[in-house]
Amino acid sequence: MELLRSPAEMHRWRAGVRGMVGFVPTMGYLHEGHLSLVRLSRQRDDVTVASIFVNPTQFGPNEDFERYPRDEARDLALLEAEGVHAVYLPSVAAMYPPGYQTYVTVEELSKRLEGAARPGHFRGVATVVTKLFGAVQPHRAYFGKKDAQQLRLIRRMVRDLDLPVEIVAGETVREPDGLAMSSRNVYLAPDERAIAPLLYRGLCAARDAFIAGERDAERLRAIVREVVGQEPRIALEYVSVADDETLEEIEGRVERPALLSLAARIGSTRLIDNVELAP
Ligand code: AMP
Q1: Tell me: the pLDDT tens digits for 163-189?
Q2: Distance (Å, rounded) from C-alpha 35 to C-alpha 46?
Q3: I want to staple 274 with a disulfide (CB 3.0 to 4.6 A). Which of 61, 86, 115, 148 is the partner?
Q4: Ligand 1: residues within 6 Å at CB?
Q5: Which residues of the chain have pLDDT under 70?
C-alpha cells in the first residue's frame, strides 16, 4: 500500500497507474461505514485509493476540528486489510499553503439544512473534494448516504463543473441498535449513547407512516419530533422533509421522492441522520 503525503507525490504515483481508479475520501477514524465504501470500490475498480484528511475549511470556528478523533496507524491497518492500493494523507500545509485563495461554492444546495446550521461547511467540502479529485483523478468516487446533503452537493458540483468522475452512493451502515455509524459517536458518554438510537427510530416511525399512506409533510415531521421528544436529553435542531434533488422543504403533500433528515444534539455531540421517502 502506497502512502502519498502531498499533491506532488500523488501526481507522481498516479501517472504510473493503469486501469479504472476508484476513490474513497474520508476524514479518518475509520468504521464500517467507510470500509463498506472501500469494499464497493474494491469490487468494481482496478485500483482503490482512500484519503484521510481532516479538512479545516469545512469546520466552523466553534466546531470540533481540533478534537476530531484521529488514529492514523489504526486507519492504515484497516485500509491495508481491505486491499487498498494507495492512501492519500496530505498535510493541512500541503493542501492550503500560504496564499491559498480558491474556493468552490455550490450556490443553492449549500444554503439548506446542514448549510444553514453550519455556515461555510459546504464551501469547505466542495473545495476539498475538488482538490482531492484533482490530485487523485479517479474514474469513480464513493460517498455515503449518511451524509445525504453532501452526496447531492457533490453530484451537482460534478455535473456543473463537467468533472469526469462517476459518483457512487453507498448505503448508511448502522450499529445493531440502528444508530448510524459516525466517527463522532466516540464523543457520546455511555448514557448519551444509550438514547442515540431514538433518532433513527423517529425517522423509521415517520417512514412507516409514509409507507402506510401518510403524505402530509408536516405530519411526517411531527412524527419524528414526537418519537425523539420522548427523550428530553436530545435537542432536535431540525427535522426536514425536502425534495430529494433540490432539498427544498416540501409544504403540503409529498408526491415525489423526498429526503427525511434531521440534526440533533445530545450533550455537546451533534449527530445527523436521514432516510429516503419514495412514493
Ligand atoms: P467522513 O470521514 O465522516 O468524512 O466520511 C467519509 C465518507 O464515509 C463519506 O462519504 C460519508 O458519507 C461516508 N460515511 C460516513 N459514515 C457512514 C455510514 N455510517 N455509512 C455509510 N457511509 C458513511
Answers
A1: 999 999 999 999 999 999 999 999 999
A2: 17
A3: 148
A4: 26-27, 33-34, 36-37, 143-144, 146-147, 170, 172-173, 180-183
A5: none
